[in-house]
Design goal:
Blueprint: H1 2-11, H2 13-16, H3 23-31, E1 52-55, E2 58-60, H4 63-72, E3 80-84, H5 90-96, E4 101-106, H6 109-121, E5 127-131, E6 144-149, H7 158-162, E7 164-174, E8 181-188, E9 194-202
Parallel strand pairs: 3-4, 3-6, 4-5, 6-7
Antiparallel strand pairs: 1-2, 7-8, 8-9
Helix pairs in contact: 1-4
The protein binds S-adenosyl-L-homocysteine.
Length: 211
Amino acid sequence: MVAEIEATYADTRALTGLAAMSPRVRAAMAKVERHRLVAAGQQALAYRNHPLPIGHGQTISQPYIVALSTDLIAPAPHMVALEVGTGSGYQAAVLAEIVKQVYSIELLAPLGHEAALRLKEMGYANIEVRIGDGYQGWPERAPFDAIVVTAAAPSIPPALLAQLKPGGRMVIPVGATGEVQRLLVVTKDAGGTVAQREVLPVRFVPLVPGK
Ligand code: SAH
C-alpha cells in the first residue's frame, strides 16, 4: 500500500508540489492497521489504495488521499489537530501517530461510536471523538494547529476558519455534492491573513448540514 501511495505521489507531483511522502507520514501510513477500521468482510481489501464503503452511505478515504491530506497540514509532534468526519477513524489514527492530540467530529452517531471504540482498542489514547456537526467545529477545544476536513463543503465553514490558529493550516475539499471538488490548503498567517491554494481535483462524500 505504501508503495502504491508513493507511486501516486509521483504521478500527482505537478499538482500537489509534493514528490514523496514525508518520513513522518510514511511511517504513520506503514503503521496504522487499516484492516481493523474497514467494515466486516472488507479486510482483504484493506491495504489496497482505494476507498471502501463503511456503511451509512459513507466511505473510508483512499489511503493516498489520507497521506496527502496529512502531509498538506505539515504535521509535527507538538500539534493539536481537528478532524471533521471521523468515519472509520482511519484518518484520525494516521494523524494521531504524528501529532500530540486529535479531536474528531462525526455527525452520524453509530459511525462515531464504532470508530471511537475501535480506536480505543487499538490503543490510541490521544484521539477524542465527538458526535456533532462539523460545520460548527469544536469551540471548547479550539484553536487548532491543523484542521483536516474529510467531507466536501460548498465553501469553507466560517467556524472552522475561526478555530484555526494563526500559523495553522486546514485541508478541505470544497465544491458541490456529486461533482468533482477541489482539495484546498487554507493557511492563516501569524497576522491572521488567510490564503488558499488549490491542490487537486477530488471526490468526497458531502459534509451534511447538521440540525
Ligand atoms: N475520515 C474518514 C472518512 C469519512 S467519510 C475516514 O478516515 O474513514 C466523511 C464522514 O463525514 C462520514 O462519516 C460522514 O458521516 C461525516 N460527516 C458528514 N457530514 C458531517 C458533518 N456535518 N459533521 C461531521 N461529520 C460529518
